[in-house]
Specification:
48% helix, two-stranded antiparallel ribbon, globular, TIM Barrel
Length: 292
């Protein structure tokens, strides 16, 4: 499996407070037109900490049936304990996941040393029937996997890459010096284009829920060497990341999706929907980006 291109970490739709598999399928069908490399279920954008295991199982089934052949289906399988992460990874495999995106355990932050992180990921990768992708998102976890640990983990035959959602370009440069069998995916839209220039093989972007086609086009333009057009398009959609997703998070993404004809709906409590003035701001941002 070649891990490259643009992946969308899809949102989890809720109806009457419950996970809505039919709305998930609807959104996947809408996203299919963008020709993404694949999809991520239960990342941060999917409100993973708020989704029960029972709901996850039903949503994985629905997504697997809807995702076209040839597209990589990545499922977030990280839990706080190593044993639960392994158990759910195996469940995800049985339900059709192609790769497991494994988040750093983070509740006991002071105990999450390099050694602990390394042992956790190695234990999961040893037992996982599918390839493992490291998930580094310190803005949520408070844990930043060191480049040294990532380099060690890259030698494991079942750990194929990392989604790095930091803004640290110096670290990104360090990660892209790892042999190319280990893939680096940018997880922060602000670093998307710069990351490609530095050697990243692709990106997992929450921005894809609002601008999947432009994200794929930027990646393709970069691949063809049309850097000026890639930069122009990147700067056109970047305000959606910096002025919608960054300040308003998942509620902002879901509001924008509703405006674009997808199903955004409400976030799960305790998150709150954005108010009408914020919705108007998002609408104007989408118009400026040429998406509405």
């Amino acid at each position: 499996m070649e891990l490259k291109g643009i992946y969308c970490p899809i949102t989890t739709p809720f109806c009457d407070g419950q996970g809505a598999a039919d709305k998930l399928v609807y959104n996947l069908e809408k996203l299919a037109a963008a020709n993404l490399a694949g999809y991520v279920l239960f990342g941060s954008t999917g409100e993973a900490p708020y989704i029960s295991v029972a709901e996850r199982i039903e949503l994985i089934k629905a997504a697997r049936a809807a995702i076209p052949p040839g597209k990589v289906f990545i499922v977030g399988t990280g839990f706080e304990s190593t044993s639960e992460t392994i158990a759910f990874t195996k469940q995800a495999v049985d339900l059709g996941a192609d790769c497991a995106l494994v988040l750093t355990p983070n509740y006991y932050k002071s105990q999450m040393s390099d050694e602990v992180c390394e042992r956790h990921f190695v234990s999961v990768a040893d037992k996982s029937p599918i390839p493992v992708i490291l998930y580094n998102v310190p803005v949520f976890t408070g844990i930043d996997i060191s480049a040294n640990v990532v380099k060690k983990l890259s030698r494991h035959p079942n750990i194929i890459g990392i989604k790095d959602s930091t803004t640290n370009l110096t670290k990104l440069i360090d990660l892209t010096t790892i042999p190319r069998h280990f893939k680096v995916l940018v997880g922060n839209a602000a670093n998307f284009l710069a990351g490609l220039f530095l050697g990243a093989q692709g990106a997992v972007l929450a921005l894809g829920n609002l601008a999947a086609k432009p994200c794929v086009e930027i990646y393709n333009l970069y691949g063809k060497g049309d850097y000026d057009e890639a930069r122009r398009l990147f700067l056109l959609i970047l305000p959606l990341a910096t002025n919608v997703i960054a300040p308003y998070g998942i509620p902002g993404i879901k509001a924008g999706m509703d405006m674009l004809g997808c199903f955004g709906g409400l976030p799960r409590a305790p998150l709150l929907a954005v108010n009408e003035s914020v919705k108007e701001e998002i609408r104007l941002r989408l118009i400026h980006a040429g998406l509405l």
